[in-house]
Amino acid sequence: MTDDRVPARRVLGLAAPALGVLAAEPLYVLVDTAVVGHLGALPLAGLALGGVLFTQVAAQLTFLSYGTTSRTARLHGAGRRAEAVEEGVQATWLAIGVGVLLVVLGQLFAPPLARLLAGDGEVAAAAVSWLRIALFGAPFVLVTMAGNGWMRGVQDTARPLRYVLMGNGLSAVLCPVLVYWAGWGLEGSAIANVVAQVVSAVLFFRALSVEHVALRPVPALMRAQLGLGRDLVLRSLAFQACFVSAASVAARTSIAAVGAHQVVLQLWTALALVLDSLAIAAQSIVGAALGAGERVKARRFAWQITRYGLVFGVLLGIVFAAVAGVLPKVFTSDAGVLAEIPHAWWFFVALQPIAGVVFALDGVLLGAGDTAFLRTATLLSAVVGFLPMVWASLAFGWGLVGIWTGLSAFMVLRLVSVLLRTRSEGWSVVGAVR
Questions:
Q1: Which range of residues forms the domain containing residue 343?
Q2: Is residue 433 part of a domain?
């Protein structure tokens, strides 16, 4: 009997660089925030609002990365590398087209959107001045997403890490120079962002050019990618509805509650990056196995990566249970916020093993191209589990306990759905394309 286990070293070799790419952007945002923060409250508020608008738009387009990985990995597993890279070419064309559209629409709608969120005042004006410059980086951000997607599909996660670090590293140096020395203030931060995005995108363009594949657009392939993207966009919108609702209810509960929710949610997001890197490795390996016709290997690996996710989740839960009395004080000294944090903290700790399994199996199903199922499961989990509990917590005054109970219901429903799906035969369709 052959051993169909994937070596743990191979999984880690894909996951670790992927984690670096995932973490690079939040780390750069911290640097950017620290630089702009010394200009005063108004520029910082403008950066915060403009950054939220830019990030929310980009977050809906991650199919350029995750969807491309799924299609590319199958072709790579089937031994059709040139066609796998051609998927990256088409994703890059899509990125350029959508990115240019975002630049045009963003220039038109940045002012009304900023006023909608912040009112007609100085904060909205500052956000617009930053956003209108930062939007010129949108095509390059999307090209980088597409580049990450096809490179992960051919199981190369090391080069994307270098490319992203080179861009962000240059920008981290350039940001204080433009903001302070050149005297460009908040706008200097936006220009530094665009420089980082251009540098990374050029490196991904170069990686495509040396692959010796046709660089012309193929509308049929782009339509297929958009079909996959539709499901991932709807899934992403479900996440956004949940987390925006949670923040809104926390804000209506009390100042201390929204502060505590922000602290715990940011930790949740940070740990999600760790677990999502494991999902990226799963996506690449499962897609390649199914593309090679190795259905048994793909199914066995699905449970192997589930065990890894469970172990990582348990370890994270233990660590954050141990630092419950210490870590929150790193983020705030406000007595009211510290008193509220335990109402969310223990949900956050208990959910780590569940999150480890859910994220791992999300990666498995994404690698299999089973996006229609993931879309439906996520939407139902949000509508049945998260949203009713979150808004009931506002109506009945349950506060953070109600909000995080809603998140727990959301995660448990997702856990049940992905476990049942993985046990079924429906996801493990072999072949170079699904």
A1: 233-423
A2: no
Over range 300-314, report the average pLDDT.
94
Integer Cα distance of 11 and 18 in angstroms:
11
Q: Which of 173, 192, 217 is the last residue of a domain?
A: 217
Q: How much of the chain is in helix, strand and coil states, percent to nearest 5? A: 85, 0, 15
Clarify whether residues 414 and 310 are in a common domain.
yes
> Would you say residue 112 has pLDDT above 70?
yes
The CA radius of gyration of the chain, in Å to the nearest whole number, is 22
Q: Answer whether 150's CB lies under 8 Å from 159's CB.
A: no
Residue 144 has a pLDDT of: 95
Is 4's pLDDT higher than 80? no
pLDDT over 60 at 2, yes or no: no
Residue type, 269: T
* 61 in Cβ contact with 142 (< 8 Å): yes
- pLDDT of 1 above 50: no
Q: List, in order, residues 6 or more apart from 173 with CB less than 8 Å away.
A: none
Total domains in the chain come to: 2
3-state secondary structure of 210: coil
Q: Are residues 67 and 208 in the same domain?
A: yes
> Three-state SS for 255?
helix
Is there a single domain that holds both residue 140 and residue 286?
Answer: no
